[in-house]
Amino acid sequence: MDAFGTTSRRGLIQALGLLPALDVASVSAAVQGGPLIPAGELSLPPGLIHLNTASAGPTPNRVLARTIAAWRQLERDPVAQCYSDQPDTVFTAADDVRGKAAALLGCSANEILFTRGTTDGITTLAHSVKLNARDRILLSNLEHEGGEVGWLHREKMSGVVVDRIQLPFEEHDPQRIVDAYAAALTPKTKVISVSHVLAPTGLRMPVAEIARIARSRGVLCVVDGAQAVGQISFDVRSIGCDAYATSGHKWLMGPKGTGFVYIAKNAAGAFDPPQWQLGRAVGSNSAGLAPLTIVVGLGEALDATRALGIHRIEAYNRGLANTVYTEMTKMPQLRIVSPTPGACSTAMVAAMLPPAIDADRLRAALRTRHNVVIKRAERRWFNGIRLSPHVFNDEVQVARALAALRTELAG
Ligand SMILES: Cc1ncc(COP(=O)(O)O)c(C=O)c1O
Questions:
Q1: Pick the CATH number of 62-306 from 3.10.450.50, 3.30.460.40, 3.40.50.150, 3.40.640.10
Q2: Does residue 13 carry a pLDDT above 60?
C-alpha cells in the first residue's frame, strides 16, 4: 500500500465518520499497526492532536522519568554527582550521551559539544570560527532566525560580512539551488551556513553538494540540522560538512533546551569553541556546570530514536505527510510551498494562505475549536501554515486535523 493508496484513504474516510464502524479493521491496516509511540507514553492531554513537532516535540514519559531520576540522584550529593567521573554519577551518565549523539550522527564522541539547541549551536559556531575582518559568510533568505542570529551578531561585533542568496520558497530543484550557492561565492567567502531541512517549507536541501562545492573552493560548510536529526536518516561524514548543529527538543522529542553540535575532527583547526578550551567532557571547566539532568534525558531520547530506527521513523512520517500533502492540494484556499512527496520532501508540509485568511486566526481556531496544534508560518516568510506529523500521530488524527482545516477554511 502506498501513502496515497486505498486503505489510507479509508482511514481518512473513517475518521470523518463516513465509513461504518465495521471498517475499523481496515482503518487499523491503514495506520500500519498504529503510531510508533502510543499516546499513553506521552503527557499530551487526551484528544489533543499535536502536528507541530518541527517547533517542539512532546517528550515521552520514559524520557521524563529518566530526567527526573537523574535529578533526584544529583540532589542527593550535588558536588560528587556534578563533578565526579566515577562510573555511577550523573556527570558520567551525561558525558556518555556524547557517544549516543555521535552514534546517531555517524561521528565520534569527541566531535560532539552539547548546547541548549540549534540557535545556541550555530551561535557558538559563529563565534568560534577563525575569521578575519571583511571575510564573508554566505546564507540564504530561507534560514531560520536561529540559524542566522549568531552570524549577524558576529558581523555586528567583528566586521565580517554576511551575504545572502535569494531562493524562492517554491524553488525545489537541487541543481539550481547548488548553482545559486556556487555563483554567490566570492574569494572572500569563508563560510556557507545552510539548513539541512528548510524550516519554512520542509525542503531537504542538497547539503552534501553544497558542502562539496564549499570544500573545492576552500570554504567551510556549517549545517543547521534543527529539522533533520530524528526526522531523516543521514550521517554527517557523508554530508562532508565541517560543522553541524541541531536540537534535542524537536524530532528527537528530548527535554526542552537541549541540543548538540558536531565539529569535524578535520575542521578542528578552523573552530576553537570556548567550551573546549579545557577539555571536551560535558562539564569541562571551560564549559562550566552543564544542565546534566536534561542531557541525561536527551540520552534516553536518543536511545528511543535508535530503538525505533531512523529509517522506520522516516518512512512512517512520510506516509502521514504524504496524506497531508495530497489532501491539502485539494483545498483551493491553499498554495502548497513544500516539495511534492519524493526525494526532497520531509514530514513538513507548508502552505500559503490568501491575504483574506489570517494564519494566526486560523491557527488559533484550530487549537480552540478542534484541539489541533499546527504552526503559523513566521510572518517574515509568508501568511501561511505548516503541519509536521511525527511518530506519535496516526492517520486518524491526521484526517481529523485535515477535516478541521477544511471546515475553518470554508468558514
Ligand atoms: C532550521 C531551524 N534552525 C534553528 C531553529 C531554532 O532551534 P532551537 O529552538 O533549538 O534553537 C529552528 C526552530 O524551529 C529551525 O527550524
A1: 3.40.640.10
A2: no
